[in-house]
Design a protein that fits this description.
heterodimer, A: 114 residues, mainly beta, 7-stranded mixed β-sheet, 11 strands, 0% helix, B: 114 residues, globular
Chain lengths: 114, 114
């Protein structure tokens, strides 16, 4: 069964460093998303991406964040200068977009900023 | 802005019994989708069941069913014949079809007692 794959599963980084979280969405999907979940809190929408551009972003997704689909298969989230409060679980999701509303989630990347 | 509220931070059910998890939401839209996601300790988000707002019939998936009350903006999840593997965090979520990004509630932690 097709699945969304995220790497790495866990990343530890020093405050102020740049991190790139990687995702491989399901191949025939057209809509891509990043969500984050701070430990013990709810899942929050960060950004959606369609047709090679951001279609919507939340207030959380400020200038420190960026997304890219560099090669038609990977979908990346970059945090330019990490802060302690960026520590969270980051989930990538994708869906077909052809009237199908089910979003398939990856297993998540746990980001720890020290 | 749309909001999703889960008023039960924790619930407990005896194995083989039935439990209902509550969810209310707020929206001015008439066309939208509602979901219940399960998050086991592995942290991956797994779709349990979904409901299209334009459908009056409540969705069912095996032991899982919903009680969708559109006028009351209520969307509860009923789990019948609870199993130990049902123990997890359950998140209620809302989306509008055009963008598809999900707005989550804070979650309900379900424990299943043997």
């Amino acid at each position: 069964e097709p699945e969304v794959t995220q790497t790495p599963s866990h990343q530890v980084t020093q405050m102020g460093q740049e991190v790139i979280l990687r995702c491989v969405p399901i191949s025939n999907h057209l809509y891509f998303y990043w969500y984050r979940q701070i430990l013990g809190q709810k899942v929050e929408f960060l950004v959606s991406f369609y047709n090679n551009e951001i279609s919507e972003k939340s207030e959380i997704f400020d200038d420190q964040f960026s997304v890219e689909r560099p090669d038609g298969s990977n979908f990346t989230l970059k945090i330019r200068s990490t802060k302690l409060e960026d520590s969270a679980m980051y989930f990538c999701a994708s869906r077909t977009g052809h009237g199908d509303t089910e979003a398939f989630f990856g297993q998540g990347t746990r980001l720890t900023v020290v | 802005a749309q909001t999703v509220t889960q008023s039960q931070p924790e619930m407990s059910v005896q194995e083989a019994e039935t439990v209902t998890l509550s969810c209310t939401y707020d929206t001015s839209e008439s066309d939208y989708y509602l979901f219940w996601y399960k998050q086991p300790p592995s942290r991956q988000m797994i779709l349990v069941i979904r409901q299209e707002a334009y459908k009056q019939q409540n969705a069912t998936e095996n032991r899982f069913s919903v009680n969708f009350q559109k006028a009351a903006k209520s969307f509860s999840l009923k789990i019948s014949d609870s199993q130990l593997g049902d123990a997890a965090m359950y998140f209620c979520a809302y989306s509008e079809g055009s963008q598809g990004n999900l707005i989550f509630g804070k979650g309900t932690k379900l424990s299943v007692k043997p």
